[in-house]
Design goal:
- There is one protein chain.
- It contains two helices and 31 strands.
- It is mainly β.
- Strand 25 and strand 26 form a beta hairpin.
Length: 521
């Protein structure tokens, strides 16, 4: 069959991620963190020759985390060495130069693009040069021709046969283990920390009634590291601290000594760490007119029991099969939890210690939120949370980390039927009461009023927070007041004030408070 080679496609090559490709070594367990990293445990039996065994392939291990030990008593490891070896392979031709070299010695019909040159049938004797400058020697009964050719100007036909496989060599890497053993085979374990696989939590909150919600946690597993086959995974909740997680182990043999030392010098830079960005703070609102029928129970599965280890929490997944490049989603737990509807509004500090009034932005945004209580047996890790009621999506927010027996709030949507306004006025002033750093300060008394109007047809619990600079004298409705750390010798206190008030349907409620503040003249 006549074969015609007329067009070559340029292929984009990417460096393969190093990994273990030894069939005798299997992944026994993997702890997967949310920041895109994992701790891997390999085990397997290795053939030993005079005490030396080989593990084919070297993983992308982080510096200081790659360890190998024997699972059998009495076997000591004297040396762990990373080596490179050349191996003969056949590969697909990726260029015109490759294709011509693969078919050297075969009959070829050569045609130059120019119409003035007729085709020549000959044997392709030699091929030399580079992709940019290819020299070929063609020989038939009448002549021997040496020409420079290219994929753009020249056509080649192989009237008898041709191949697209070329002989080549490739470099393979392996770990050589030198032991004191006289056995012909022994079991070993290898552990290391790597990047390239992580998980992301997602919550579904179904408001079953006015007091109880069904909370469902699922995990999205992203695998860009290596093939997993019936692997036991543990999804970790917590904050892993691996200071060299972004620095490759020297055993990967991809860095020179100077490059390795340079990477170590920047290891304590917190801005160089990968995957440290928090979950994007993005709200997605849905129209309530979406029509969804049916009563699907998304929590109808057996919850996975987690295990606490010091400050970390582990959810076990058994027999996970996920090839490199694939993604998977797995249900973790479902729980009925108590909740309450609340409405939140944050007011700015109305007056700074320099006496400048803060710009008002009325009407202030009032957020309809739900306050969830964690009465389950495991902590809730930070993740996206979408809230439903009667099958309709209400909104999406972030559910923050919530320890057992504590509370968290999740925003649903803004509430235009609750209006919050505020006003502050100076009521008294005592001049030049204090002198500091050469300046005189007046003691000013401020009276503030917050007005909450509920246009809803049902009662509302409203949480109003406001930072106040100065000494609080009076405050109605018994707010919760906390005082953060302040600068030494500061004249004015800093306060975070939180009012938790109930406003009946159609009611207007006022909150009056007073405070004193030193203002520079």
């Amino acid at each position: 069959m006549k074969k015609t080679l007329m067009l070559f496609l340029f292929l984009y090559a990417t460096r393969a991620v190093a990994q273990i490709n030894d069939p005798s070594m299997k992944i026994i367990k993997m702890d997967v963190f949310k920041n895109g990293s994992s701790f891997v445990v390999f085990e397997g039996k290795i053939t030993l020759t005079q005490g030396v065994g080989t593990i084919r392939g070297i993983p992308d291990a982080a510096f200081g985390t790659l360890w190998v030990a024997s699972l059998e008593k009495g076997i000591q490891i004297d040396e762990l060495k990373a080596v490179r070896e050349k191996k003969a392979v056949k590969r697909n031709a990726e260029s015109l130069l490759d294709m011509l070299k693969a078919n050297t010695g075969k009959k070829v019909v050569w045609q130059h693009r120019s119409e003035k040159v007729s085709s020549i049938t000959a044997v392709l004797e030699t091929v030399t040069g580079t992709d940019e400058r290819i020299l070929v020697t063609l020989k038939n009964a009448n002549q021997t021709i040496t020409a420079q050719v290219s994929a753009y100007y020249d056509f080649f036909e192989f009237p008898e046969s041709f191949t697209n496989q070329i002989d080549d060599t490739t470099q393979t890497t392996s770990l050589q283990i030198k032991t004191n053993s006289t056995l012909s085979e022994a079991a070993f374990q290898m552990v290391y920390f790597q990047s390239g696989i992580g998980w992301t939590p997602s919550y579904r909150i179904d408001l079953a009634d006015e007091k109880t919600a069904q909370l469902v946690l699922s995990a999205s597993l992203i695998n860009d590291a290596q093939n997993l086959s019936n692997t036991r995974l543990s999804l970790v909740v917590g904050f892993p601290h691996f200071i060299y997680s972004d620095i490759e182990s020297p055993l990967t043999m991809r860095q020179s000594l100077s490059q390795f030392l340079q990477s170590l010098s920047g290891a304590d830079n917190p801005y160089a760490q990968r995957y440290t960005s928090p979950l994007a703070n993005q709200s997605i609102m849905y129209e309530r007119s979406i029509n969804m029928t049916g009563e699907t129970d998304f929590g109808n599965f057996k919850s996975r029991e987690g295990v606490a280890e010091e400050d970390l929490f582990f959810y076990d997944l058994s027999k996970v099969t996920l090839r490199k490049g694939e993604r998977g989603q797995y249900n973790i737990f479902s729980a009925s939890v108590p909740y309450a509807h609340i409405f939140e509004v944050n007011l700015p500090n109305a007056l700074s210690s320099d006496g400048y009034a803060v710009e008002k932005k009325e009407p202030y945004q009032v957020w309809h939120s739900i306050k969830l209580e964690n009465k389950s047996s495991q902590p809730w890790t930070t993740g996206s949370a979408i809230t439903f009621q009667n099958g309709k999506p209400l909104g999406q927010d972030i559910l923050r980390y919530t320890a057992v027996k504590s509370f968290t709030t999740v925003k649903i949507t803004q509430s235009p039927d609750l209006r919050v306004t505020e006003e502050e006025k100076e009521t008294t002033r005592k001049e030049e009461v204090r002198k500091k750093d050469g300046y005189y300060y007046d003691l000013v008394t401020i009276t503030g009023e917050i007005v909450i109007t509920n246009y809803k047809n049902k009662d509302a619990r409203v949480i109003v927070t406001r930072p106040i600079t100065g000494k609080i004298i009076t405050a109605e409705n018994q707010p919760k007041i906390t005082q953060p750390a302040m600068m030494r010798n500061a004249l004015n206190l800093e306060n975070n004030v939180e009012w938790d008030v109930s406003v009946k349907a159609g009611e207007e409620k006022k909150i009056i408070y007073t405070y004193e503040i030193f203002l520079r003249r």
